[in-house]
Amino acid sequence: MSEDRGTRPDGAADPDAPGSAPPRLRPRPLDRPATDPGERAAFGRPDGVGSSFAPPSSHLGSNGSLPTVPPPTAAVARAFGRPDRAPDGDPAGGLQRPPGASGDALRGGGQSAEQDPFWPGGSTGDPWRDPGTPVVAAPPPGDGDEPGEGPRPDGPRLSVREVLFGKRVQPRALALLGVLALVIGAAGGLVGHWTAAAAGALTSPGAVLSATEPARERPPGSVSEVASRVLPAVVSLEVTVGNQAGNGSGVVIDPAGYVLTNDHVVAPATGPGQGTIEALFSDGSRLPATVVGADPMTDLAVVKVPVANPTVAGIGRSGELAVGDAVIAIGSPFGLAGTVTTGIVSAVDRPVRLDPEGSAGDAVIDAVQTDAAINPGNSGGPLVDATGAVVGINTAIRSAGSAESGAQGGSIGLGFAIPIDDARAIAEELIRTGRVAHADLGVNARSVTDGATDGAQVQNVVAGGPAAAAGIADGDVVVDVAGRPIASADELVVAVREHAPGEQVPVGLVRQGRPLTVTVTLGQR
């Protein structure tokens, strides 16, 4: 039978009743000190909020409940939702560890680190789960080097057309770019101008260049104008005999292609070797030439060139020349075709005996002397006056104390030309007959002087000759021929050749100190 416990009338257990439990002490009331109104306003709950997470009334629905969130999209569900297949032993599909997989098992025994669903590489090497990992101060965020992004590919480039008309750049930007370019260009121009002005002031202050004058025209009668007219009529003659070659000059004197030159220029081609002659014109044309006739006594020859419509030189008069007249020599010295030199007439009627080897005979000319530069190769070329008319044929130079015709030697300002008055008559005769006959006195003479009178003393008289017929004897001194004074043996030769064969001329003599005049009928040589 059970024992009834004593109770109090208010239903509480009576502690004095037999068999009742000891009385229980109630908790002491909490002593809540008064809160400061400022702290309550700063940290207390808002009015009307009864719990820590009570939503504001504005977030409640119309029925007083919390509003529901719309279901997530499929992409959000795949990214943040639970896995499709829950682990074994977790029918709710939660994120619980597999049964029996404790931390100790994962670290030491039970399931292997390779089977740990949270740490595939094993949790033993994770510093966050190893209590023995030392504490290392990490650098503040952002102080480390950013990982390299690798080379970026080049973007599309804009062409000028796309920039201006493709609406790829704003018009304001284009306008601003144009203004900047103009400003930079103007600034650069000003800087350059100031720099140039400053440099000019440093180098040549106040210097002003004078204005250049236009080129002057070459007046008629100038050397260049005369040469331009005469050069087309001058040819360069190239003579070849076997393996030997020489050159000279010539001048066209007839439209038929006749060229006047020196005998010593073409003599090698008419000798035993029978060489060839070629004429080279100023335009570069090269044609063969044949000898028409030659006169060794005056060192003149005429060749013919098969040329159509050649330029013919004008023929002047050497008898009108005066000492000091300007002359121009044109020829091919040392093979330099078309060479022009200038000078004056140094003397006229200068008897010059030519080199027998060069003239192929005992030639004596009554030369025009000039200081125009004449060199080997000028032989046969024209000597022209200021009008461009031919007044002589360049023939010889005097070098190293001897008269040389064609010999190697430089010009020293003593050149000699055959007067054109004599050369023209001889050239006409050579073209007509191929030979020339000269007057002959029939004596051999030498130059003499007694200190007061000069002359040509007769050494011997050719038997049966014109002088013997006229009564000239050995020892007579010839001092005059047809009124021309004779001062040397060479002057006697040229004075006689001025006349035609068969002509009667008076000859003045000095015999044993007495003057004597005889008339001689000149012979032919």
From TrEMBL:
Residues 9-23 have a biased composition (Low complexity). Residues 1-158 are annotated as: Disordered. Residues 28-39 have a biased composition (Basic and acidic residues). Residues 430-498 form the PDZ domain. InterPro entries: Chloro_Bact_Ser_Proteases (IPR051201), PDZ (IPR001478), PDZ_sf (IPR036034), Peptidase_S1_PA (IPR009003), Peptidase_S1_PA_chymotrypsin (IPR043504), Peptidase_S1C (IPR001940). SMART domains: PDZ. SUPFAM superfamilies: PDZ domain-like, Trypsin-like serine proteases. Keywords: Hydrolase, Membrane, Protease, Transmembrane, Transmembrane helix. Pfam families: PDZ_2, Trypsin_2. Gene3D superfamilies: 2.30.42.10, Trypsin-like serine proteases (2.40.10.10). The chain crosses the membrane at residues 174-194. It comes from the Bacteria. Belongs to the peptidase S1C family. This is Trypsin-like peptidase domain-containing protein.
